[in-house]
Amino acid sequence: MGNRLMNTEIFIAKKLIFSRDKTKSIARSILDIAIFGISLGLAVMIVAVSVVTGFKNEISRKVVGFASHIQILNFDSNISFETQPIDSRQDFVDDLRADPDIRDVQVFATKAGIIKTKSDIQGVVLKGVGADYNWDFLEDYLQEGSVPGFNDSVPDNSVLISKYLATLLKLELNDDFLMYFIQDPPRMRRFTITGIFETSLEEFDKTFVFGDLRHIQNLNDWSEVQVSGFEVNIQDFSKLDEGTYKVMNSVGFGFEDDGSRLKVVNIEEKYPQIFDWLNLQDMNVMIILILMLVVAGFNMVSGLLILILDRTNMIGTLKALGSRNLSIRKIFLYHSLFMIVKGLIWGNIIGIGICLIQQYFGIIELDQSSYYLTSVPINLNLLSIAGLNLGTAVVIILMLIVPSMIISRISPALAIRFE
After folding, report:
1. In Å, what is the CA distance from 143 to each residue of 117, 212, 369?
2. Tens digits of pLDDT across the chain (419 residues)
3. Cα(86)–Cα(71) distance, rounded to whole angstroms?
């Protein structure tokens, strides 16, 4: 009996929503506005979440590409690029490389220098890498040439520089330039440009030049097993804290032969200003989501009240025939649910459509010096979109429960005479 009653309520709700009664044009217009409000709210939420997660993913990926997820350094190394060396023959390296959650472990060294051409001068950081370096990130942003390979027994003079530096210093592919290193005594090296990249992360593009690790070892009078440290990249950035603790446990608190200790620093600790800025975007998205839900909810509440007012005569008739208040409320809640679903469908079409257009055509451009990107990034995640749809539907339905109680205050006798 209960199942039959529920089917009756759904049947009446369908009749109401698909009714073509032209005398109800004003009420139908108001209901269409409520549906539009849900569609617009969901579309804005989809775009906001896709853009912010896109920002976070792209900028995080670029920063990690320059500095890795986790670095293992000499404890005495500070924030400068002149580092204290550690021994590359560490027992923990093989253990880390065998861990399925870790993508790669590679040695590196950094040293500040000055590039001097015939007409220009620019301070940079030479980042020395070895044969084990993963070039995938820089290959994705390569504009000209190719990445160097450092497999010979003698130092290779090939370097990879950014398009920003090449333009600033009027250099081109295959050009030679001199880099001076301020030390006692001062030293100089000649390098050849074999590749030019552009990540649009200007702060990093104008700083780093990628070259052979052995040059830095020679400049610093280090042995062939001394490096600035190790770069560790994990498989999942969302597990950065877990990965950091795992690396800390592997490295331990042992001492080097010279009495120095090792330290582990992750990318968020190394560049807190960038990641604090990215985390602030989450708050902006939360505010947008709340505002859109409230607007869509109140639009739907208004639509429900208009629907109840428009169908007062029907409500009185149903009550006179013995229908309970709860049963009649369900009819209008089912009706509202149909409207919400319709609004969600259009909201998905609009929101996902806007995101796809931006993703493939990059219509909205950005100032890369301020935003680190040339266009607004998009990250369409099906799980996030499904969550937005479900959350919107649940919140609006909950907001409709209280106003639907007005049905219990309607008198059957007065309602039947209501015009």
Report:
1. 22, 20, 19
2. 445 445 778 877 777 766 655 445 566 777 788 889 999 999 999 999 999 999 999 999 999 999 999 999 988 776 677 888 999 988 899 999 999 999 999 999 999 999 998 888 999 999 999 988 999 999 999 999 999 888 777 788 999 999 999 999 999 999 999 999 988 888 999 999 999 999 988 889 999 999 999 999 999 999 999 999 999 999 999 999 999 999 999 887 655 565 568 899 999 999 999 899 888 888 888 998 999 999 888 888 888 888 777 777 777 777 777 778 788 888 888 888 888 999 999 999 999 999 999 999 989 998 877 778 888 999 999 999 999 999 999 999 988 888 877 776 666 656 555 55
3. 12
User: If we measure between CA atoms, which residue out of 220, 205, 154, 215 comes closest to residue 179?
Assistant: 215
205-216 burial code (b ≥16 CB/10 A, e <16): bebbbbbbbbbb
Closest CA to 212 of 145, 152, 122, 141: 152
Instruction: Give me 153's structure tokens.
Output: 């027994």
- The single-letter code of the amino acid at 386 is A
- C-beta separation of 108 from 128 below 8 A: yes
Nearest to 404 by CA among 290, 292, 305, 268: 305
* Total-model pTM: 0.82
**Biggest CA pair distance of the chain:** 103
DSSP at 255:
B
CA angle 358, 362, 367 (to 5 degrees): 120
State how far the alpha carbon of 248 is from the alpha carbons of 70, 103, 259, 269, in Å.
Answer: 10, 16, 19, 14
If phi > 0 it is left, if psi is from -120 to 50 it is alpha, else beta; for residue 145 that is: left
Residue spans per domain, the chain? 2-61+275-417, 76-260
Distance separating alpha carbons of residues 244 and 267, to the nearest angstrom? 10
325-361 and 312-320 helices cross at what angle (nearest 10)?
140
Closest-CA residue to 104 (of 77, 145, 135): 135
